[in-house]
Design goal:
By secondary structure, this protein is an alpha+beta fold. The chain has one helix spanning about 15-35, and strands spanning about 5, 10.
């Protein structure tokens, strides 16, 4: 019988735990590349309309 490991997803085999860890790392890298963690991306840009 395969020894099960308790992870944040429940009890899984060591191979599944390794795959989950690799997938989590990949997803974090992709999210970082696309600006998912940038706090300033949703802020509105204020453009001043100065009249001369």
């Amino acid at each position: 019988m395969v020894k099960m490991i308790n992870t944040k997803y429940g009890y899984v085999t060591p191979q599944e735990a390794e795959m989950d860890a690799n997938l989590d790392k990949w997803m974090k890298r992709r999210a970082k590349q696309h600006g998912a963690f940038r706090l300033d991306k949703n802020k509105k840009v204020v453009i001043k309309n100065e009249r001369c």
